[in-house]
Design a protein that fits this description.
By secondary structure, the protein is α/β, with parallel strands linked by helices. About 45% of the residues lie in helices and about 15% in strands. It contains 16 helices and 15 strands. Strands 1-2-12-11-10-13-14 form a seven-stranded mixed β-sheet, with helices on both faces. α2 crosses α8, α7 runs parallel beside α8 and α9 packs across α10. The N and C termini lie far apart (about 85 Å).
Length: about 450
């Protein structure tokens, strides 16, 4: 096999050992980087429009991009009631069970307060407080995602945030997706607005007459949403949870993996959108060939086959010499989702240094994490897992440090402060301590 083989419009076959470093980086490049400059300029224009014209801009942009004219953005009681009636009982019950598992997993994960006596007479503490005003973004473009409302709403409620508002794109008839509304109410979200895309992120960050400004914005989205979050955070307008853009999955599989399972896992992410990316890495050429064939078969039966096919054209099936190479590749890529379709997956956990969420073995599809296992599906993408973690209760909290010193305490550690302050040339700092020392030593 050549280093890179075009597989008739599906994922590209690649032999890793035949590539130099530059070629390897190109193989691992995310699709969303194409046209990044034009995207950034378009997003900046939307943000500036909202910053300048507020709600009038939101109405104009919504009409232009979503094809619907809205007089009011906020969802009222009548629409919530209609949503409750429209959502099937089976779906509502499944979401309730998923929410319970999400709560069970997330409840122990909040930040903890503690107190330490760092020296005799000196006590340092950490307080934990909820972020007061948070904005949640729930995508609903090509597919509404009520599961994201659960993933964000549950930890926000557990953290005790005082103001929790949610934005989700309007449908063509001007309504919000009913399942998203039911999920929002289920988790205790306070207010919901029918706004999507970069303009929704701008509204949450900047605030308008109708949409309250937030201290931190959460949620995944397409490249436009991710870029808006990046720009507004960089400008100091709002904090963000993490860079969470188009979906991606990397599967490491050995010869014993089930090709049909692996293909199904790859397609489960490919159907998210044309800019999603999926990678299979294996040391078993026969498995790669079997997955390639399974992809073609399964693809034809999918309602979103056209979307998945576009994503597959930017995806890769990578042959490596051994599993050590597979994990080195994965850590370089830092995938949002990492599936270990291996005979002893837990034995390899120590090799993973960068990933948003890991799925162990043949019977743990990524889709369980997307919906109902209990972990969070709002995860870092585009390589951000090198430094970022997925959403948790801690993401909705902040810490405040406290210290208290007795006279004996300042006498014990004050000289160190004076010495360090003098070394830094900050005499006023040194003097603030020095003036207290005679009394403290008395």
């Amino acid at each position: 096999m050549n280093a890179c083989v075009d597989t008739a419009g599906t994922a590209q076959r690649v032999r890793w050992s035949a590539l130099d470093n530059a070629e390897r980086l190109r193989v691992l490049q995310r699709p969303v980087r194409d046209g990044a400059q034009a995207l950034a300029q378009s997003v900046a224009a939307i943000v500036d429009e909202v910053r300048r014209d507020g709600d009038a801009a939101l109405r104009a942009i919504t009409a232009r991009l979503d094809g619907v004219e809205l007089q009011a953005f906020e969802v009222g009681e009548a629409e919530f009631a209609a949503a409750e009636a429209m959502v099937p009982v089976a779906l509502r019950e499944a979401m309730a069970r998923a929410a319970a598992r999400i709560e069970a997993f997330h409840a122990p994960g909040g930040l903890q307060e503690y107190s330490v006596e760092t020296a005799p007479g000196v006590v340092c503490e950490r307080l934990v407080r909820p972020i007061a005003r948070v904005g949640l973004y729930v995508p609903a473009g090509s597919a509404p995602l009520p599961s994201t409302a659960l993933m964000l709403g549950v930890p926000a409620r557990l953290a005790g945030c005082a103001q929790v508002v949610l934005c989700t794109p309007p449908r063509r008839d001007g309504s919000a997706d009913p399942a998203v509304l039911v999920a929002a109410r289920m988790t205790g979200v306070h207010r919901v607005f029918k706004l999507g895309g970069a303009q929704a992120i701008a509204a949450l960050a900047l605030g308008t007459a109708e949409v309250p400004a937030c201290d931190k914005v959460f949620g995944p989205g397409n490249a436009w949403v991710t870029e808006a979050k990046r720009q507004l955070a960089q400008a100091g307008d709002v904090a963000i949870d993490l860079p969470a853009g188009p979906s991606e999955v990397l599967v490491i599989a050995d010869a014993g993996a089930d090709a049909e399972f692996v293909a199904a896992d790859l397609l489960s992410q490919a159907e998210h959108g044309p800019d999603s990316q999926v990678l299979l890495v294996s040391d078993a050429p026969a498995l790669l060939a079997a997955v390639e064939a399974a992809l073609a078969r399964q693809l034809e039966a999918l309602p979103r086959a056209d979307i998945a096919r576009q994503a597959l054209q930017r995806s890769r099936l990578v042959e490596v010499e051994d599993l050590e190479d597979a994990f080195a590749l994965s850590n370089l890529y830092a995938p949002e989702h990492l599936i270990l379709a291996l005979r002893e997956p837990r034995r390899w956990l120590g090799r993973v240094t960068s990933a948003g969420s890991i799925f162990l073995g043949d019977h743990t599809p990524e889709a369980l994490g997307d919906y109902c296992s209990g972990t969070n599906h709002v995860l870092p993408t585009d390589g951000a897992a090198h430094a970022w973690s997925g959403v948790s209760v801690a993401a909705f909290q902040k810490t405040i440090s406290v210290q208290a010193a007795t006279p004996a305490g300042v006498a014990a550690i004050g000289p160190d402060a004076v010495t360090i302050a003098a070394a830094e040339g900050l005499e006023a700092h040194a003097n603030a301590v020095r003036r207290r020392l005679p009394e403290a030593r008395a």
